[in-house]
Amino acid sequence: MDEVQVVVAHSERATLRVGDVFLKVDADQARIDAEVEAMSLAPVPTPKVLWRKPPVLAITAVPGATLGRLGGPATGSSAAWAAAGAALRKLHDAPLPPRPGRAGRSAAALTAELDDECGRLVASGLLPVGLVARNRRAAEAALRPWTPAFTHGDLQIAHVFLDGDEVTGIIDWSEAGRGDALYDLATFTLGHEEHLDDVIAGYGTDVDLDVIHAWWSLRSLLAVRWLAEHGFDPFAPGCEVDVLRSRM
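and the corresponding structure tokens:
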């Protein structure tokens, strides 16, 4: 191969692509262990593990293309978005994995984290107090009891690959585990509200839209400062800050 592509890199981990092989470098071995375990248990297409030599995990690329990315235009038919919803429902209906995931934090823990983060956002001047306060109130609906499901925990639109209307692979399982199913639905549709109905049509069950809207606010509030501190731009058009403004 004549090129090594840096897919993502920050102080916690990095992912490199060499041809059809992805190399994930992560100093947190528990995170790599959780990813490998989740991919082995998930009833949906996932990358194949080629080898592991801590701190590196080598996996195959998956075929197909994503439906877009946060901050960019969304692609794909309504049927493609519905297919993603159906795959997500299949995951959520699977037997529970042994570990709690990112989507499995308790309401008490989330409340404490959210209140702390909102205080930091205002104190630093990163976001205006009114924007933070309104979204903090909107986020309250997500802080409720939920039935544990097998969740991906970081189901960004860029992590689901399709070929036409068929899901060919879901990547990046390091945050997977037992958690709130609506967190996954909210993460996948973050910034692409116009496709929420299609995803729910494929998901095939009643969904509390107020909770999904609340997760959009909650997830964005928790992400803005971390993204800004790790070289990403949450203020880019269509990204987290625009999501918070849209909730106004």
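(Above: one complete record from the training split.) Residues 63-246 form a domain with the Aminoglycoside 3'-phosphotransferase; Chain: A, domain 2 fold (CATH 3.90.1200.10).
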